[in-house]
Amino acid sequence: MTGGLFLDYVDPWINWDWVSRHVSLILTSLLAHVELTVITVAVALVIALPIGVIAQRQPAFRAAALTLFGVFYTIPSIALFALLIPYTGLSTLTGEIGLVAYALLILTRNVIVGLDAVPADVRDAADGMGYRAFARLVRVELPLALPAIFAGVRIATVTTIGLITITAVIGLDSLGQLILTGLTDGVHTPLVVGTVLSVAFAFVADLALAAGERVAVPWARPA
Amino acid sequence: MNWKARPAVLALVLAAAMTVVACGSSPSTGGSKGTITIAGFKFTEGSVLAELYGQALQHAGYTVNFKINLGSREIVAPAIKSGQVDLYIGYAATDLEYYNGGLGEASGDVTATTAKLNLRLQPLQLEALTPSAAVDQNAFAMTKANAQKYNATKLSDLAPIGSQLVLGAGPECPTRPFCQPGLEKTYGIKFKSFKALDTDGPLTRAALANNSIQVGLVFSSDADLQKLNLVVLKDDKQLENADNVVPIIRSKVATGDVKAVLNRISANLTTDELITMNGQVQLYGQDADTVAAAFLQQHKFFGG
Amino acid sequence: MTILEDVVRWFTSPAHWSGPDGITTRLLEHVQLSAESVLIGAVIALPIGIVLGHYGRFGAAAINISNVGRAIPSFALLVLAFQIFGLGDAPIIIALTALAIPPMVTNSYVAMREVDPDVKDAARGMGYRELAQVLRVELPLAVPLVMAGVRTSAVQVVATATLAALIAGGGFGRYIIDGLAQFDYTKLMAGAILVAALALATEFSLAAVERLLVPRGIRLLGASAAKRVTFKAA
Known about the structure:
The complex is a heterotrimer.
Chain A: H1 16-21, H2 23-57, H3 59-74, H4 77-88, H5 92-116, H6 120-128, H7 133-164, H8 175-185, H9 189-216
Helix pairs in contact in A: 2-3, 2-5, 2-7, 2-8, 3-5, 4-5, 5-7, 6-7, 7-9, 8-9
Chain B: H1 5-24, E1 35-41, H2 44-59, E2 63-71, H3 73-81, E3 87-91, H4 92-99, H5 110-121, E4 126-128, E5 138-143, H6 144-149, E6 166-169, H7 180-187, E7 193-196, H8 202-209, E8 215-219, E9 230-232, E10 245-250, H9 256-268, H10 271-282, H11 288-298
Parallel strand pairs in B: 1-2, 1-3, 6-7, 6-8
Antiparallel strand pairs in B: 3-10, 4-10, 5-8, 5-9
Chain C: H1 2-12, H2 23-55, H3 59-71, H4 74-85, H5 89-114, H6 117-126, H7 130-163, H8 173-181, H9 185-213, H10 216-221
Helix pairs in contact in C: 1-9, 2-5, 2-7, 3-5, 4-5, 5-7, 6-7, 7-9, 8-9
């Protein structure tokens, strides 16, 4: 650990020498961050889709699901991790459970909103054409709900990327470790590098998802 | 750029990144005498010591896995007990009190302390090697201004004025026998309050500088104390015991050759040199591994 | 489950309620840090969002400030504040205020844009001048969504104030950070429960305030703050 007040060495905000000596550390942290993001959003989507579908059809379930996920969302992340630690330890699993819990509200809500937006006539037409319920869902309603779902995925992804930095406090690897190193060692560079990369990653991910949406939903105006 | 290409470019960048990481972490070339995993505590000196002893083993022909900044003793000790790491560089008295559950067996006598430590380690199939002369122990510091104001040069000077002083240290201090409880038990100092900061880090230094704490925990081998106008109060009642640097190793890995290499480093390491190495990292922004390598080269340990 | 029993015992022990590390003190610290930040943030953010929304200017900026804010790790803001401004409550409040501003700007901008243009025309036709129109016609209609923005900010500030313990801040976060460092899982859980309870209490109480502030006519119409721009920083 370093003190902060040296008389002959002023710590620059970015010490490029430090950066060049720590490329592998930076890349490992970035990779861990990317991995955690992908796992979180993928798992949350897999859970949110069926729950969103059911919730959209059943008002009582909708209220219950959104309320429960809303409660998860409101609980500060460090607190949620702390509640899990005695049971799941200082592990990646603890982080993932917490992060997925946060993404659930955004994704479920957007699945519901997306399905709500499907015009009744389209549903009727599909019925008229002989689609059974599941086929109608998968081949008519969900594709039409895609813009809303994509919007949800984008917000959930950017939110998750920011929240992952907090997992450094419970010992998980991510760009947050660079930020934490900046704090504990009293140096600027890891803090700046960790923050800039986190924001850049969020920006790139958002762009990539927007591009993905244009591929998947060519008929819709991107959000 | 064509929007279709953007996701492909992203994938390429990620693939490139993964390749670099994979190449960067590949193990060293073969022909080694075996693999040893060494863990380092999560502070500057921990990294320096882990690099120092680890590189010595590398020079002697072993493949070494470094786990720098692994964590505090609460993380490192279980890791060596379970065999996830083979070796860490500890401190005789603090480690003894960790493994004996805080019984208070440690003393200022390094030989006795290390012997007792080995008694505790043996059932765990661990052993402590020969301790070094280099010492790093908890130290309590005040700013020069406060030391003059309260006329304090040693810790027992604080006993009558404890209620005017705020103690600052890492959050674990109120539960560590060599920290707040020890100050109360051995010196009778009852502080006005305790402020949870960090263990010898920038928060503690900032708090000392702006007088939100009057007494702060530092480490006796810190290199920047003088520059920050901090004076360490003398531990006249020997609360802090023989915290000599000592390698703690799994018996299975402790062959005669390994022990010889490690003991040789310990024998040649002094507190002053430790302070200097810490200073190079803390004050001049150098890396622990570079500093350790320089030390080994300087002392021509391996004919080079 | 014994850890829950320990936690109950922790809460029922009177020693944990008094003193500088007691629940009462920590609660006051946490609420004070959060309230000050949200208030200062509101004083800055609400006028900006309301004015921009009224005139319909710089909409992209007003919306994107939340997108950008959402991407900045709140944890980094706190560390940055310490490294620039040093130790104490002021740096924490600076960081928290910065965090509180984006959701309030965006939500109050959207709130003003959502006001039915016919209503604005009618008001103008009735002779309202600019400021009066904003204050007496548009704002009351915009209030639900404006309050939703304040509510979002408040919950995020309460959440991030928990992390302030990492830069020697007080509040309930202390129990979590100290519990981690001391490997005291009882304190850790107790702190987590307190933080969660405070965040939920903030959300629900401000939602209640929001309902009280909605003009009776709008309430009868069943308007909802469904257009709220959400934000999770911590």
